[in-house]
Amino acid sequence: MEVVASATDNNGNPITGTDSAELDAIAAEITVDTTVNNETGLMDIEGTTIDVPENSTVEITITDSVGNTVTTQASVNEDGSYSVENVDIRELVDGDLTIDAKAIDNNGQDVFAQTNDELLLVVELAIETSGSLEVFEKFLSNGSAANDGEPKDSGSIRITTSQGIQSVTIAGVVITLEALEASNASPISITTPEGNLVEIVGFIQVNDNAYQVDYTFELLNPASHPEQGTDELAKEPISLSVTDQRGNVESSEVEVSIVDDIPAAEDVKENIGVALTEAGISGFKAGFLLEETTAVNGSVSGEVLDADAYADRLTWGTPANGSQGSNYVFEDNEDFRTGDTIFTDQLIELGTFTHNNFPILSSGSILTSTVLEVKFTLVIDGVEQEISGQVFLEHDETPNTNSDPQAPENDDIIKITNIDFVQTYEINDRIYEFRIKGFLDQDGNIVDEIRTTEQASNSFKLFAELASTSDLPVFEGQVDYFWGADGAADEDPVIWKDIDAASGVIETDLGILTINPDGSYSYEVKTEARNKLQLGEVLVDRFTYVLKDADGDLVESSLEIHLNGVSNFITMQVTAPTVQEKFLPEGSAAGEGSTSASGQVVITSANAITSILIDGALLNQEQLNNLADTPFVLTTAAGNTVTLTGFEEGASGIYKLNYEFDLTSPEAHSAQGADELSKGLFDITVTSASGAEATTQLKANIIDDVPVAAETEVSLDVNLVEAKIGSFEAGFESFGAATGTNVDQDTFVDKLEWGTPTSGSQRSGYTFVDNEELRVETDIALDQLITLGVFTHNNFPISSGSSNFTGTDLIVRFNLVIEGELQAVEARIVLDHNETSNTNSTPTHPDNDDIVTITNVDATQTFIVNGREYQFQVKGFIDQNGNVVEQIRTTETRSNSFELVGQLVSTYALPSIEGQVDYNFGADGAAVADAVKWSGINAASGTIDGVYGSLTIQEDGSYTYIAKPDVLSTLKPNELVQDSFTYVLTDADGDQVQSVLTINLNGKTAQAGEVFRGDEGDNTIVGGSGNDLIIGGQGNDILFGGEGDDVFKWELNDQGSVGAPAVDVVKDFSIGNNVLDLKDLLSGESESTINDFILAEQDGNSTVLFIKTDGGLLGNPENADQKIVLEGVQMNGESSAEFLNDLISKGMLNIDN
């Protein structure tokens, strides 16, 4: 190809130029290809382009057979390709598809491509329910169980769809997807064609293709059930359908079963108290009136057989053939003579009438008539009334025409001719009638004529009646008809069976029921029913009726009237509440139970209760009926409260008075132990409408509280002390002119003799026999007597002037091992000898006794072992009475032997423990006198000597127990012994309880101690686990003893100065049996002057000792040159002097004495 270019230059001349080139032109092009996924409704599109710019857009249009289109776009890649995936074409209809692609080439020209495909979409759409629904008419608001449940059921609908949800239709109502999604927060209500309610309450997506709709169904109206009874009716189902996004529809339904409600069957029981007036009868007497007795052919004789003056036996005629003859006998009802109870309108047995019907001669007298008279005293409602009645008897003595003597034709006939006899009395505005009723015959009937068999004794009981003419009881009530949810039938909803109608009058043997259309009724008791009713008997009148509801269900119910025979008197029965004193705030189980309980008085009265009188207050009917809202409160003398909380009228004339008893303070109980006291609280008098009264007491059962029995155990560790004696030897020294002889294995003189014997006697002399057991190492006990040997005075007569022996020294020498430390002991015992002249002619007379005296019996040797002080003391001789004495008398002409004893004592603090016995006397509190008695001292305080120690008890129960010294050496390691002390607590109403305090003493092996010594500076010293000696030295020291029984020792000049005292702190003085040793620090002190040297003051939880080492403290802490702080030690209210003396007495403070 040649290219020519021409132009005009600046001079106006044309210029031209040519060039040639080769042309290679490319045509623009586009392709399109598709793939359809018929399960998902998605299409993948791809293609190529030629001469189309990179990143340019390809427009793609997909058209179905009816013209619906879906458009999308793709971007051209560098290589000219393009693609787009998952294009949603589900809104297109199935069938042929046309796909058009368009792009713009590099020249700006449109480039087109087209292809065809087919859409055959696979659709999944299903709807299923959780099952049928069941609802009950009885739970409807007017149903028979309206408050027992809801007429509602719930379910769910599961929708499976591959094409999504467009809407759901329930009971004809279309609900969009958006509304479904909002139902979780805003439920959707749908009214069914039957007027019931469906409520959509939730919508969730279960997985990619599944959804769940939750709903409830509520029955709002009963359904008509054609069958009888509580049958289940499958009503028209609720229609369901779902429409997917492509318009596909799937339908289903939910079955609804409605269980029929029927009328409620009622068995109504009403109680009517029928008053039977209770009367007291006494002073009964009865018999025949001779003056009113008639006979033919002669007379009738009378005889008294009982306590009254009436004739009880009438005899007439001449016996025939040796028979007994004829007579009447009347035996009074003896119960009525002394006193018994009868009831009005009841038969009263007056006695037994007997006709002894035996043959008599016709020529003799024959009875024709007589009068039986009865008299008695009747008490009705507290009013006495004398009752008198006469029974007129006519006697027919029939001829014995039949050869069989006992043939009925031969019976005699006795007739009451005044059977209509009535005597009227008015008592408390009520009319009573006394009537003769007749004889009780063999058939059990009351008759006015009896026949008596010949040649037999014929007995019949005679009855009367005390009738009351008071009004018969009338009861009014209401039968509540309930037809259930369906309501009453339009015709004959109620039929009473006895009258086949809804209202009318029904008469029975017992009473008359008048029923009204609304179910109200009245019932009147018949006289006949009252007359045959016995006290405590119940007669039942039963009536039935049938209810029919709107859909024809029939249910039979009943009304029962119970006629209860009750006394016209008022009776009361008290059910007393029971409370326990131990639950009172000061009781032994305070707070563990209630001190309030409910009681009740059951009142039986045929007449309405009109008032109750209690503690001077008269409560009328209105106040009684309002007690539940306005309780009536009374306070007892002891401060406890009684609250009347309610008054109820129950069935059969029974009333209930409810009360609450609140125990706020204890009551006195006379018996021992937690006995129950029936405490009368207040008298109450109940009055009825008839004026009858009755009185009883409100009561409460109060169970006594008693002191709390305690078994207190505490433990005391006893650090044991091992002490031994060995290498023992003894003998006499410094014996003047006496002759001495050694008779044992040691070097001492053991035998002394002096003087010239008289009359061939022996010489006088002393012998001392060593305790051989002590020559070898032997265990000994602290504070126990140790037998050193036996001293003998051979007191035989010697010539006057033959000896001037006045005494000698007895040397005792041995090794003492204490806590493993050896101590050499030598004791010199100075013996003074008084050789008395024998002035009495009887040699053995006491006047002739010689006298031997130990003149230095108080001499002691002191040892310090591990910082603790021990002393060995020669105590004296054991005399004939077992006493330790320093002087003995020896009988002339006799050898007089006495044990010589010593003792190893400890002066440091013995193991002790302090504690508190908490006396709990319970709710009654302590007795005024002798509330606490400890055995051994029979008092509340004092010191009791136990087996292993002494217990000092204070009145408040605080105590100190100190072990005996010998326990330290006699108790074995790990051995446990117990010291028990009993005491008795007595509370304010005399209850006694024994308790026990037990001290467990545990033998502990003493740990060998160490000496810890500080320097002149300020030191912190920590002891070990043994029994240590702690010496802080000068300066301000902090001292820890640690475990064990430690000695804190201050030496001479360890103090500071007045105004700048040394301050030492003992951190753990309260642990173990520790000792403060101030002997070397103080100068000139004694137990009696110790308060001039030391002042003790409480400081918080610690005690401070202010010390003036040379005395003159004058009770002023400012004068101190040494302070000792005992941390954790409290004075417990003691004064300084009391506190210091207590430490000294317990061996916890060592000073010079």
Written overview of the protein:
- The chain has 6 helices and 86 strands.
- By secondary structure, the chain is mostly beta strands.
- It has 8 domains: 29-119, Sandwich (Immunoglobulin-like), CATH 2.60.40; 125-259, Macroglobulin (MG2) domain (Immunoglobulin-like); 274-468, no CATH class; 474-483 and 493-567, Immunoglobulin-like (Sandwich); 571-705, Immunoglobulin-like (Sandwich), CATH 2.60.40; 725-898, no CATH class; 912-1005, Immunoglobulin-like (Sandwich); 1011-1150, no CATH class.
- The strands form 17 sheets. Strands 24, 25, 26, 28, 32, 33, 34 and 36 form an 8-stranded antiparallel sheet that branches. Strands 56, 57, 58, 60, 64, 65, 66 and 68 form an 8-stranded antiparallel sheet that branches. Strands 22, 23, 27, 29, 30, 31 and 35 form a 7-stranded antiparallel sheet that branches.
- β71 (942-945) and β72 (949-953) form a beta hairpin.
